[in-house]
């Protein structure tokens, strides 16, 4: 099929990607390189994790991954030269001014050339160190936008956030609006970020004076982040600092380019593109799924009215981000929520059915697979544990279930509904603008899924494959 529209709009474009080793950014880069080989160039910002060169890190942590196998097969022996022509890896850090780019000539070249800046950089640990989370998720957003504002030919700034920036709102419809329009008054304080930076530094100075160990400092910073998040109404440090990142972006008013914020919920494996079942890392739904498989989740939170907002596949997320031509025509700023609410009980029951049929763990009998008992509130969950688990041999299993329930309580018992009007409108525009053929290639319609088939035949097998190959 001859493609135009979305694919054509990416031709000869020069794109800066931050957070380049993350699974969502890799998916986006792979998709564009595969469907539009005439994209002019990618600049990929990479953190210098070790003594390797940027090119070595690119090969190891980005293009060398299994995700690129379809593209690698397509180009054969020319794959390396194709990547060298299309991609420039750069060591940098979003937590620093000018993204930590030290080559002034390269920086000037980028400012002159770049058409699209896509900020994927984030620390997604729910309760990471507060200083780290604020530096990356909040100040990082500011630094990337500052860099974008210097790009002379910029057509679009794309910021990947999370739908859970709105978990300060626990019920009702969560609107697709810039966060500054929906936050509580206490969170709109223009000085909040500077105040939090001072608070962090004060706590670090206290720890240094007390000669705290690195382990003690890390624990203190994690506790501070959770304390400040809950003070302002957020469930955890991740959601809070990502929210502050959106606030920071909203304050940059002197722009002559559109800003698009994508708010995905929890993300699972690819559904079909570039192949089904690709997953990297152990996030979102996966700890619960694997815990069911190992018999470590005898009880959990949820009922048939409890929804767990996820995106069933990373490829659908990449397809949203690829709607470049439409997004750059947006007047002003736009927020797109990308979510697919489904019942947590059903998802974990599918996991139970899968592991009952497929006892994949070495030395494990099928009778070790336990169907979780679900409770609609944390208090009823705790009461069940208090009344039924006193035998020491079961204590470790129950403690694990408790920790998992406490971590996921804000999400599995979340009563809000994410408005997806803008995303639905973008999908309709896409079909009308490009036609049904190309719109299907970049499909991100949440209705096009059979959850049982996806869980049983795509996601869980992909997850198991990843775990068995990395354990």
Automatic annotation (TrEMBL):
* Top-level taxon in the UniProt lineage: Eukaryota
The positions making up the signal sequence are none
**Fatty acyl-CoA reductase C-terminal domain span:** 396-469
Q: Does the keyword Coiled coil apply?
A: yes
This enzyme catalyses: a long-chain fatty acyl-CoA + 2 NADPH + 2 H(+) = a long-chain primary fatty alcohol + 2 NADP(+) + CoA
Q: What does this protein do?
A: Catalyzes the reduction of fatty acyl-CoA to fatty alcohols.
Coiled-coil residues are 183-210
Q: Which SUPFAM superfamilies match?
A: NAD(P)-binding Rossmann-fold domains
Name of the protein described by the UniProt record: Fatty acyl-CoA reductase
InterPro entries, alphabetized? FAR (IPR026055), FAR_C (IPR033640), FAR_NAD-bd (IPR013120), NAD(P)-bd_dom_sf (IPR036291)
User: What keywords are annotated for this sequence in UniProt?
Assistant: Coiled coil, Lipid biosynthesis, Lipid metabolism, NADP, Oxidoreductase
**UniProt record similarity statement:** Belongs to the fatty acyl-CoA reductase family.
Identify the enzyme class. oxidoreductase
The Thioester reductase (TE) domain covers 17-311
Q: What is its EC number?
A: 1.2.1.84
Q: Name one GO molecular function term.
A: alcohol-forming long-chain fatty acyl-CoA reductase activity
Gene source species = Papaver somniferum (Opium poppy)
Q: Does the keyword NADP apply?
A: yes
A single BP term in Gene Ontology: suberin biosynthetic process
């Amino acid at each position: 099929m001859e493609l135009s529209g979305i694919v054509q709009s990416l031709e000869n474009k020069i794109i800066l990607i931050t957070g380049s080793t993350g699974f969502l950014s890799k998916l986006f880069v792979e998709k564009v390189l595969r469907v539009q080989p005439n994209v002019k160039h990618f600049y990929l910002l990479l953190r210098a994790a070790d003594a390797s060169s940027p090119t070595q890190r690119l090969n190891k942590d980005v293009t060398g991954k299994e995700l690129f196998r379809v593209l690698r097969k397509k180009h054969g022996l020319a794959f390396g030269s194709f990547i060298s022509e299309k991609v420039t890896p750069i060591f940098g850090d979003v937590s620093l001014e000018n993204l930590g780019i030290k080559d002034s000539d390269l920086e000037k070249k980028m400012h002159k050339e770049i058409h699209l800046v896509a900020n994927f950089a984030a620390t997604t640990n729910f309760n990471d160190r507060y200083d780290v989370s604020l530096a990356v998720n909040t100040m990082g957003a500011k630094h990337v936008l500052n860099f974008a504002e210097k790009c002379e030919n910029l057509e679009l700034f794309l910021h990947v956030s999370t739908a859970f920036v709105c978990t300060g709102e626990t019920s009702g419809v969560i609107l697709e609006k810039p966060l500054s329009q929906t936050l509580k008054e206490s969170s709109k304080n223009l000085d909040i970020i500077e105040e939090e930076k001072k608070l962090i530094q004060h706590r670090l100075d206290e720890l240094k004076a007390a000669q705290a160990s690195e382990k003690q400092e890390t624990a203190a910073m994690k506790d501070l982040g959770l304390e400040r998040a809950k003070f302002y109404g957020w469930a955890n440090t991740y959601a809070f600092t990502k929210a502050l990142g959106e606030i920071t972006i909203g304050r940059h008013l002197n722009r002559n380019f559109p800003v698009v914020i994508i708010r995905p919920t929890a993300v699972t494996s690819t559904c079909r593109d570039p192949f089904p079942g690709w997953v990297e890392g152990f996030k979102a739904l996966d700890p619960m799924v694997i815990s069911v498989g190992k018999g470590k989740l005898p009880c959990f939170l949820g009922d048939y009215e409890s929804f767990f907002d996820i995106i069933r596949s990373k490829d659908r997320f990449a397809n949203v981000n690829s709607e470049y031509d439409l997004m750059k025509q947006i007047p002003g700023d736009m927020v797109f929520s990308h979510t697919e609410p489904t019942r947590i009980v059903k998802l974990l029951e599918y996991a139970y059915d899968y592991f009952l049929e497929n006892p994949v763990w070495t030395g494990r009998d099928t009778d070790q697979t336990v169907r979780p008992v679900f409770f609609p509130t944390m208090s009823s969950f705790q009461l069940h544990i208090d009344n039924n688990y006193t035998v020491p041999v079961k204590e470790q299993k129950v403690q694990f279930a408790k920790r998992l329930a406490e971590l996921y309580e804000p999400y599995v018992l979340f009563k809000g509904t994410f408005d997806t009007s803008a995303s639905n409108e973008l999908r309709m525009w896409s079909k009308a603008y490009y036609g049904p053929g190309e719109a299907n290639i970049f499909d991100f319609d949440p209705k096009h899924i059979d959850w049982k088939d996806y869980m049983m035949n795509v996601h869980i097998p992909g997850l198991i494959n990843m775990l068995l190959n990395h354990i």
